[in-house]
Amino acid sequence: QVQLVESGGGLVQAGGSLRLSCAASGRTFGSGTMGWFRQAPGKEREFVAAISWSGGSTRYADSVKGRFTISRDNAENSVVLQINSLRPEDTAVYYCSAHISGSYYSTGAYGYWGQGIQVTVSS
Questions:
Q1: Contacts of residue 65, Cβ cutoff 8 Å, sequence gap at least 6
Q2: What gap in Å lies between CA 44 and CA 106, rounded to an integer?
Q3: Rounded to the nearest 5°, which phi and psi values hold at 121?
Q4: Measured between alpha carbons, how far is residue 27 from residues 8, 23, 35, 39, 77 in Å?
Q5: Sheet order of strands, 3-7 included
Q6: Burial class, 123, CB count within 10 angstroms (exposed 0-12 / middle 13-18 / buried 19+)
Q7: For residue range 43-97, what is the model confidence (pLDDT) as tens digits?
């Protein structure tokens, strides 16, 4: 069992930055890929970023490349998503997730999810 708790969301103006954190507990944290997804109102949950167990491999959605950075600290059991140059279209609930098997870009490949945290970007 894995418990994931996100923090760091909020309201920010376009062009601003936020740092989302995910605190993980319940299993050997450093053993798997971790991901961030987001879900905007009326839309499906979509992949944002993922990071391998070692932190040596990262993946990003095209829409966030160059603006978002995912990192992890296995000693602290945490994953961070640094989001810069925010746009109104980044407004969504952001979810931290733990990968189980399958495509890193698919929600179905992730077996554990946080409760989500709201990010709102005003224009």
A1: none
A2: 11
A3: -115, 120
A4: 23, 12, 16, 26, 10
A5: 3-7, 18-25, 78-83, 68-73
A6: exposed
A7: 999 999 999 988 899 999 999 999 999 999 988 899 999 999 999 999 999 999 9
Angle at 52 between CA 107 and CA 57, to 5 degrees: 110
Name the token pair of 50: 């993922």
The span from the CA of 34 to the CA of 37, in Å, is 10
The secondary element (H helix, E strand) that includes residue 120 is: strand 117-122
| SS3 at position 108 | helix
Task: Give me the residues paired with residue 36 across strands.
Answer: 49, 96
Give CA 86 to chain center in angstroms: 15
pLDDT of residue 2: 83
Rg (CA), the chain: 13
